[in-house]
Amino acid sequence: MSINWINTLEALLVVALVTILTRSLPFLFLGGRKELPDTVSYLGTVLPAAIMIILVVFCLRNIGLSAYPFGLPELLSVAVVIIVHRTRKNVFLSISAGTGLYMVLTRTLFITAS
Amino acid sequence: MKSFVFAFKQAIPVFFPYLFIGIAFGVLMNEAGYSAGWSFLSGVFIYAGSMQIVMVSLLTTGASLGTIALMTFFVNARHIFYGIAFIDQFRKMGRKYPYMVFTLTDEVYSILCSIDYPDDVDIRKTDFYITLILHLVWILSCLAGALFGQLIPYDLAGIEFSATAFFITVCMNQWQSMDSHLPAITGLISALAFYFILGPSQFILPALAVSVLVLIVMKSRWPDDQQKNRGMEVEAGLTEQAEENSYEY
């Protein structure tokens, strides 16, 4: 397949610019104000907690709950991350334990054809 | 130097997901016939993992620029909600302000909104170092995937779970540091509700938008104890740094 580099460059530019746009929007609308509106600083405090949990669901969105293995590798690994993080409070350890378990489970108990 | 070491430690948990997703992207680009230079440019100027991977299929199917723009907007629209917490923080960063905005990825966002700065580090420098370190790791991962992706002898599939695991630890740290769990519960309920109504590919934007609305409604209903806490801390004469740091509740 031959690559048309002008087309590719255009496509890359569009993706880069639109990505920058989505990241800049709140700053474009509110960054110029001297004093941020009350509601915005309130949202700045409370919104991250809501967003992070939505992001977790987003990461897990493609697990199939209705067919084998019913999302079990993901759900078990999530449980391990929560338990390890609760007891040891070490981010690195929690991530390694959860990811390690996930990689083992998807290779041994829950092999899916993919 | 202290700030750099601290920043590096904060960034380490994200190295794994970045390496994996970056390498996966580089391999895909390579397989689609694009030389390593394109992977490098994408890493530098796009710096959005899932979107870069979507882009490969857009490139290979020859999608029009309009389609590409629309796709990018919808894949990345969740980022619109990220900046809200950092407007005050970033605009005080002078020349680095635009760079901080352009590099606010899911992972950078999650580090910055849960970080607990010790007294002896410079907050602005730390934020900038974290951002820069992770951007470099991302660029190198994309490049490594394009150049050596085929040579990796191990099957790394599944290591992408490290991103999920990292976000879970951030959620738990936030849960502990906040007086009220209502924001987290709001997010969880709206995410699950829209997930089951709209399905995996449609749920995130309505979930984010409804969470914002619900939280705004709650503000008037519920005496903003968090803001009061912040006000009291400032009154108690904490350091200038703590004042600037709008997400220290």
Distance between the termini of chain B: 27 Å
Number of alpha- plus pi-helical segments of chain B: 13
Provide the β-strand percentage band of chain B.
Answer: under 5%
- Tell me, briefly, the overall form of chain A: flat
Whole-angstrom Rg of chain A: 21 Å
Q: Name the helicity range of chain B.
A: over 70%
In the predicted model, the low-confidence regions of chain B spanning at least 5 consecutive residues are 225-249
The total strand number of chain A stands at 0
> How many domains is the backbone of chain B divided into?
2
Strand composition percent of chain A:
under 5%
- Structural class by SSE content of chain B: mainly alpha
Mean pLDDT over the full residue set of chain A = 87
User: Which protein chains are joined by the largest interface, and how many residues does each one contribute?
Assistant: A-B, 66 and 98 residues
Based on secondary structure, the structural category of chain A is mainly alpha
Number of helices of chain A: 4
Oligomer: heterodimer
Layout of helices and strands:
The complex is a heterodimer of chains A (114) and B (249).
Chain A: H1 5-30, H2 38-59, H3 72-88, H4 91-107
Chain B: H1 2-31, H2 36-45, H3 49-60, H4 65-76, H5 87-91, H6 97-102, H7 106-112, H8 123-148, H9 161-177, H10 182-198, H11 204-221, H12 225-235, H13 240-244
Helix pairs in contact in B: 1-2, 1-3, 1-8, 1-9, 2-8, 3-4, 10-11
